[in-house]
Amino acid sequence: MEMVKIDNFFSDEFLQRERLKSNTDIVSIFCIAGLAVNLVLGFGLGVFGLYEDFTVYMLTMVVVTVISMLCVGWICAKFCGGMKACIKKYEKKTGLSDNFLLVLFGFSGCMTVNLILTIISLFFPFIGSSNIDISEMNIYNVMLMMFAVALAPAVCEEIAFRGFVMGSLSEFGQGFAVIMTSVFFGMLHGNLSGILFAFSAGLLMGCVRKTSGSLVPSMTVHFLNNAYAVCSLCFMKMADGEEGLMMYAVFSFIFMLVMVVVFVISMLVLNSKNIGIFTFSSGDCVLTTSENAKVVLTRPLFWVFMAFAGIITVLSLGA
Description:
Elements: H1 2-9, H2 12-47, H3 54-77, H4 83-87, H5 96-123, H6 139-169, H7 174-187, H8 192-212, H9 215-238, H10 241-272, H11 289-297, H12 300-317
Helix pairs in contact: 2-3, 2-12, 3-6, 5-8, 5-9, 5-10, 6-7, 6-9, 7-8, 8-9, 9-10
């Protein structure tokens, strides 16, 4: 009888539950540290008046991204088997042509979400928008912004989230890993519009990452999405008066409508090729999704992160 109790105590269910507790705590610490780095360095920029220098501002954004995502992420990943081990949790499954379809699916999906949130913001303006601006329109500033806002986050954030975070949660089911990674990814953005968009885009990029087995397609989607935001800002700067802004708004709306059509077509093509973009494996996980969720929701560090991110979000509404 005593042996039965010991066997039950060390059952697969118990061990997986303990690993999920540990990994959730580690991911929560990573996200809390990431927010803290952003706040501290952002405060430092304001104190020393460095926001006024566009070059310094952009380069500092790169430094913040590298430190908060790669450096902190690499340290935290050490407690989940290492960054490489987390990234390798998903084996490569698709070829070049299929990856192109997945990138098309991911980017057009992001544009579809962008259109929906743009329409919602017309009725709920408190949702807000990005406060990044470009001081002067020239090729140097545009390329610098492309590097700081599009390329660096695409590489660093995908390694951190679709690599470390998603990999550390993969053994508890692919669907659970994609959703929880998107929750952490979304809340880390610190403002309402950013949270809503990043969560939705995170789901799309998580599906792309899970299906392709590689970080490159999700990095590409991330880069294209951020590059579109940079290009949009540049076009708005170039617009001449109200008429120019109206032309930009019409062009942007038409482009997003086209992307909605592309999104639907890409889903149909992927489905016809039996590429399970929305098919999720539970693997060897013996816990159900609801049981996984209960474990996460009982972790104090998870709620510390959610409260921290929530406070920053509320403060951003009044900014």
